[in-house]
């Protein structure tokens, strides 16, 4: 670290201007002057002499104005300090500075208000009235603006040069890969990125065809051979008459003729890839995204160009988010620049900071985490019940879930959980004890609570010893375990009854939240030693929890005779079925009256049947010993009646599981347990479909904030007379439904979130 501030400044300017030999005075577009060292430093001293620093504590007064008029509502503070004052209608402020005193030569007196560039002055006579002038923001959004890569290798204005405390965590965030995630493009184009060879593709019933090579621009090879799954993508669905299923060309083939190119694109790009030059609101094709927009997704330069967010049910740039991009200059930075942010005291002229308090509010997140749509395809839009869903199907409902919670009433915002306070010397460079200067070039020493984590994780990491949450932030340990799972048992008449209570204690939204693909899988087991007790009553995981195949006994369907199960219409059993479980279940006619947090299901008076979760009870289960054509030999001879349903599933995870343990996503339909999810249904009444095929929501039993879900289970304990029984309830987080992951060859996992165990004595 340099020992002299002027050397620090020179070092910074090398970042800003690549240490070039450019003149310090030249005209920018619009008549602005290129900034050299003197412009950046303001009244910074020259030479090797460091002037004495005066300190001040007490009351300082003054006025804030712009173009000769008073500015009401401006936030006035010394840079980095918590004490602040707000100007009245005459622009007057009275600021009380407490101990420790402020170092006047190092920290400026600043003012900021939405709609104005933040400004500041160096205070030399604190007992006299101060005067701070703000420049009004008058820029008009320029769509030709080219977004800057936050971690570019070249010189400024790349964010990493000064903001490593924010940039490095952001690189680990889901926002950074929002545009490049292969699973996103699978769902968009109808591809299966997990099936990487023609043989594996054809074996899965897919088509091996040419399509867009992800992220490649015109200077590179733009096509690649990929696997296409029938009827499983936004573009094929929207452009069925041009490309995709059954057509000669895929919908993302850049070499397809004009009449085979998609004309309908969907709104996905408005949230997943908003930072691309030439973005067409509501109609940007994800396959056209390249460069920074593809590689960096939702990045610093985009988020801090957000001028405002309107809380509504529109997706991102298509109606919720308004951005302000300055006109480009012939230099790397636009002059004037504009950077919106939550800090009112950033006064570095090249940044062009504008205070925007929405950055600290949940409404800011609503821009992409709250949106509805009445079907994607025109034919589906006609089938969406507009009286039930007047704003369309709620596809992202996280903001409304929070809005209806006690967390909103208590003032806890999304950022308090997902952008927690971090300890850092400043929001910019690590000063390492060096003094700052009142021009603000190096940022201000910031008090704990002003700098925040930009990983924006959905779930916090383990805390270190001595961790103390900042007042207002949620406790990170509590955020790791947002659900309290408890067990009550009753053993009688040879049966063991188990009630599982799951309370959403910490999350400010339903669990799981976000896109409808998210699921929480509950698995309940009762064991004596290593032997599992068979379930003979209670809840089971429904079919959309994953089944390799399903069927019905009797009534012209499949046939069970002794321990032989023959499939309907002589359909062959897959060879992989050997060793798997067949769960026999029956619809109970009883519906779960679960708590709901938002939308139609939460309306007063809604009946359990209207909520759509009919319970299926276990009848029997057996393992497959061998298969021969359409017949499978089971390891037992279950007694079932005609009309009983069966699912072919994997063995459920058993025994002790550790938090954050990853388990391969498996088909678990029929297993004693339950699933918590928003279940989309298509025009053919198929449940668990992707949201872009949905015409209705069949059920939504996700656990609302502060609410408790109850599940009930029963096991045959007649063989455990005189023995203790171990009961375990394991809660798994599943990002992608089993069926979707399987058809696309995704290697995904279920993550253990919680396991609760109790011992039932004889």
Explain the overall architecture.
The chain is an alpha+beta fold and 762 residues long. Among the domains are: 5-136, Immunoglobulin-like (Sandwich); 483-760, no CATH class. It is built from 17 helices and 36 strands. The strands form 10 sheets. Strands 21, 22, 31, 32, 33, 35 and 36 form a 7-stranded antiparallel beta sheet that branches. A 7-stranded antiparallel beta sheet has the order 24-30-27-28-29-26-25.
What are the main properties of this structure?
Immunoglobulin-like, 762 residues, single chain, seven-stranded antiparallel sheet
Give me a quick take on this structure:
The chain is α+β, with helices and mostly antiparallel strands and 762 residues long. The protein contains 17 helices and 36 strands.
């Amino acid at each position: 670290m340099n020992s002299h501030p002027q050397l620090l400044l020179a070092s910074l300017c090398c970042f800003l201007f690549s240490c070039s030999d450019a003149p310090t005075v030249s005209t920018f577009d619009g008549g602005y002057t290129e900034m050299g060292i003197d412009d950046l430093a303001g009244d910074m001293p020259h030479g090797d002499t460091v002037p004495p620093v005066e300190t001040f504590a007490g009351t300082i007064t003054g006025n804030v104005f712009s173009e000769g008029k008073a500015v009401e509502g401006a936030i006035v503070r010394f840079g980095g300090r918590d004490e602040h004052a707000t100007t009245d209608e005459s622009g007057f402020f009275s600021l009380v500075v407490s101990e420790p005193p402020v170092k006047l030569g190092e920290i400026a007196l600043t003012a900021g208000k939405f709609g104005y560039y933040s400004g500041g002055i160096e205070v030399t006579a604190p007992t006299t009235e101060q005067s701070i002038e703000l420049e009004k923001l008058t820029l008009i959004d320029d769509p030709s603006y080219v977004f800057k890569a936050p971690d570019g290798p070249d010189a400024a204005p790349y964010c990493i040069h000064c903001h490593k405390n924010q940039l490095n965590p952001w690189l680990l965030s889901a926002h950074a890969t929002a545009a490049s995630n292969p699973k996103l493009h699978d769902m968009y184009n109808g591809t299966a990125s997990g099936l990487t060879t023609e043989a594996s593709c054809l074996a899965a019933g897919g088509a091996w065809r040419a399509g867009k090579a992800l992220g490649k621009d015109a200077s590179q090879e733009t096509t690649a051979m990929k696997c296409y799954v029938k009827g499983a993508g936004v573009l094929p669905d929207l452009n069925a008459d041009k490309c995709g299923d059954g057509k000669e060309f895929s919908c993302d083939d850049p070499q397809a003729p004009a009449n085979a190119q998609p004309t309908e694109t969907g709104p996905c790009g408005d949230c997943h890839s908003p930072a691309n030059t030439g973005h067409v609101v509501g109609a940007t094709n994800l396959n056209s995204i390249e460069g920074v927009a593809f590689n960096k997704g939702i990045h610093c330069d985009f988020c801090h160009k957000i001028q405002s967010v309107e809380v509504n049910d529109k997706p991102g740039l298509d109606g919720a988010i308004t951005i302000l991009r300055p006109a480009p200059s012939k230099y790397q930075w636009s002059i004037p620049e504009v950077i919106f942010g939550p800090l009112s005291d950033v006064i570095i002229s090249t940044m062009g900071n504008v205070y925007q308090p929405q950055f600290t509010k949940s409404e800011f997140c609503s821009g992409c985490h709250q949106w509805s749509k009445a079907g994607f395809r025109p034919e589906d839009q006609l089938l969406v019940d507009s009286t039930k869903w007047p704003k369309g199907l709620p596809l992202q409902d996280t903001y409304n879930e929070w809005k209806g919670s006690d967390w909103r009433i208590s003032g806890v915002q999304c950022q308090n959980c997902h952008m927690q306070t971090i300890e850092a010397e400043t929001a910019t460079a690590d000063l390492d004890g060096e003094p700052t200067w009142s021009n603000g070039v190096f940022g201000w020493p910031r008090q704990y609570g002003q700098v925040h984590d930009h990983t924006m994780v959905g779930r916090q990491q383990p805390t270190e010893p001595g961790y103390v949450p900042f007042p207002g932030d949620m406790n990170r340990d509590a955020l790791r375990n947002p659900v309290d799972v408890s067990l009550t048992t009753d053993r009688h008449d040879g049966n063991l009854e188990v009630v599982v209570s799951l309370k959403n204690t910490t999350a400010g939204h339903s669990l799981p939240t976000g896109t409808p693909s998210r699921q929480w899988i509950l698995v309940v087991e009762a064991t004596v030693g290593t032997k599992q007790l068979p379930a003979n009553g209670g809840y089971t995981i429904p079919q959309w929890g994953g089944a390799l195949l399903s069927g019905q006994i009797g009534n012209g369907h499949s046939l069970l005779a002794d321990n032989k199960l023959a499939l309907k219409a002589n359909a062959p059993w897959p060879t992989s079925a050997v060793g798997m479980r067949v769960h026999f279940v029956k619809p109970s006619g009883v519906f779960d009256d679960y708590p709901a947090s938002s939308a139609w299901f939460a309306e007063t008076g809604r009946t359990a049947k209207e909520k759509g979760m009919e319970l299926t009870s276990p009848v029997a289960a057996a393992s497959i010993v061998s298969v021969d054509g359409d017949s499978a030999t089971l390891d037992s001879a279950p007694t079932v009646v005609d009309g009983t349903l069966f699912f072919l599933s994997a063995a459920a995870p058993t025994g002790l599981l550790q938090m954050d343990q990853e388990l391969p996503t498996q088909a678990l339909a029929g297993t004693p347990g339950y699933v918590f999810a928003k279940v989309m249904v298509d025009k053919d009444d198929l449940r668990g479909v992707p949201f872009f095929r949905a015409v209705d929501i069949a059920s939504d039993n996700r656990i609302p904030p502060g609410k408790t879900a109850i599940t009930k289970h029963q096991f045959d304990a007649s063989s455990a007379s005189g023995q203790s029984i171990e009961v375990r309830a394991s809660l798994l987080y599943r990002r992608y439904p089993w069926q979707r992951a399987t058809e696309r060859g995704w290697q995904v996992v279920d993550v253990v979130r919680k396991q609760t165990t109790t011992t039932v004595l004889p």
